[in-house]
Write a structure and sequence with these properties.
Length: about 180
């Protein structure tokens, strides 16, 4: 998994997503864009990709498309329409684009196996043709927006020393149990 961060000027969501899909298809990767304001951190995205890849490997995915499956896990929702709230929208917004070449394991001859996936580096280069590079994951977050989206209450926050990102990762993990 490689994460591309930046700012996107999205004139038409369908066109932007179609360009990302074309990059993914050409490079053999899942390419999924998120409104960075809803991303709790890198571990949040890593957990979503891991759970989505695991679901595909077990033939237990919610969606037919691995990119959509990543979005569903990242949003912690089973319904695509609800998960799309976390996707990109028209206008100029901070975005995070996850590029993941997959989890196929090939025998590399020494018995350990090697990851066989798409060309993530090429896909990321092409994504940066669509977005203006910027450190958006390191930017300050609107924790209220993230808490509201993921349904994390003051009571829940008060009952634990866990970070907001840890609580969001828990939501991502619970989606697999909730199936």
């Amino acid at each position: 998994m490689i994460v591309a961060e930046g700012v996107a000027d999205v004139a038409d969501v369908d066109d932007f997503v179609a360009e990302l899909d074309a990059i993914g298809e050409a490079c053999g990767c899942a390419v999924t864009a998120f409104d960075a304001r809803y991303v709790a951190g890198r571990r949040h995205l890593e957990a979503a990709v891991d759970r989505a890849n695991r679901a595909f490997a077990r033939d237990d995915a919610i969606a037919d498309d691995r990119g959509i499956e990543i979005l569903l896990y990242a949003a912690g929702r089973r319904q695509i329409q609800q998960a799309l709230e976390m996707g990109v929208s028209e206008g100029r917004w901070p975005v995070v684009v996850v590029v993941d070449g997959g989890t196929a394991i090939a025998n590399d001859g020494d018995g350990t196996g090697a990851r066989a996936g798409g060309d993530e580096a090429e896909a990321v280069d092409r994504v940066y043709d669509l977005i203006e590079p910027a450190d958006v994951l390191g930017a300050e977050r609107d924790e209220g927006l993230i808490r509201e989206f993921f349904g994390i209450t003051e009571t829940e926050l008060g009952a634990t020393d866990a970070s907001l990102e840890t609580l969001v990762v828990e939501r991502v993990s619970l989606l697999a149990i909730d199936k």
